Amino acid sequence: MRRRLSLKMPELPEVETIVCSLRNPADRAFAEGQSLRERPGIVGRQVAGARLNWAKTLALPDWQQFQQEVTGQTVQAVTRRGKFVVIPMGTNTLLFHLRMSGDLRVEPQDAAEQKHDRLLLDFSDGTRLSFNDPRKFGRAWWATDVQSVLGDLGPEPLDEGLTGQEMYARWHRSSRAIKTLLLDQSLLAGVGNIYSDEALFLARIHPLTPGNCLTPVQAEALLAGVRQVLHEGIERNGASIDWVYRGGDFQNYFRVYQRTGEPCTVCGTPIERRVIGQRSSHFCPHCQSFTGCS
DNA sequence: CACGAGACCTGTTCGC
DNA sequence: TGCGAACAGGTCTCGT
């Protein structure tokens, strides 16, 4: 069954997809007739000016200082940390958090500004980076010390050095529901509401299981589940990406998320929805039965 | 300190 | 059709 999400889904895979599209895409195929200046990569481009349409979008510093310091800087790289987009430029770094509805586009400067464009950087080559964010939750930082913004983030789930043992130690310290712990960015960076539900389903763990009730085996399975759904998300989001239309189709492959009442793909039991930690949570009551706490 | 509720926002969908 | 309520991918702050 097809289901539509009204907006983008800026969890880790979506951010990863955007970051990839903002890198210099020397290794990507282009549509025929697409001119050089329309290519999305921004590495090496120099900022000629900036515009801010919603004051709160710029978290730090104040607008005047930002405008002064960013002008003339050159984009050195585009990377990701958790759900943050990280863009080193000279001695400072520009960071974005897309929150619920943010998006970043690259386009020619003569393209019409779009509704909800909050922060725009004009490059000297005639292109522009636009931060669009309908709900105004997104934020940008211009920081000398990147750690002042990213310092509290937990490890990267896709970092191969991260072990289930390490996550067991982190989750086991708390009695909060594992669903809530998965969303805690200081324990593990990048997992959001969709992928937490999907990962718990793959690991066959009930979302209300207290962290200190998890077994080492379950923690191992959960980290594996997180990695699997993130990889799937990155693949699906990337599948239909060509920078003109950036809309993945992972939403058509959800196993539990937004499938309330529909049959579990494994056992057929109707998927349940309930609110945990103020977030909607979806799970199979049969496959993810609560195993108790010893 | 841990936890839950409320705040921040706009747009879309649902139910009457 | 119209209209208000409910809901949405995230995180911070404040009160208990």
Sequence-ordered SSE layout with sheet pairings:
Elements: H1 12-22, E1 47-52, E2 58-60, H2 63-70, E3 79-81, E4 84-89, E5 92-97, E6 103-108, E7 117-123, E8 127-132, E9 139-143, H3 147-150, H4 164-172, H5 178-183, H6 193-203, H7 216-239, E10 272-276, E11 279-283
Parallel strand pairs: 2-9
Antiparallel strand pairs: 1-7, 3-4, 4-5, 5-9, 6-8, 7-8, 10-11
Helix pairs in contact: 1-7, 4-7, 6-7
This protein binds a DNA duplex (16 and 16 nucleotides) through residues 5-11, 14, 56, 83, 97-101, 116, 133-139, 174-176, 180, 183, 185, 192-195, 277-280.
Structural class estimated from helices and strands: alpha+beta
| Strand arrangement, major sheet | 2-9-5-4-3
The top-level CATH class of the largest domain is Alpha Beta
Count of strand segments: 11
Brief sketch in words of this structure:
The protein is of the alpha+beta class and 294 residues long. The protein has helices spanning 12-22, 63-70, 147-150, 164-172, 178-183, 193-203, 216-239; strands at 47-52, 58-60, 79-81, 84-89, 92-97, 103-108, 117-123, 127-132, 139-143, 272-276, 279-283.
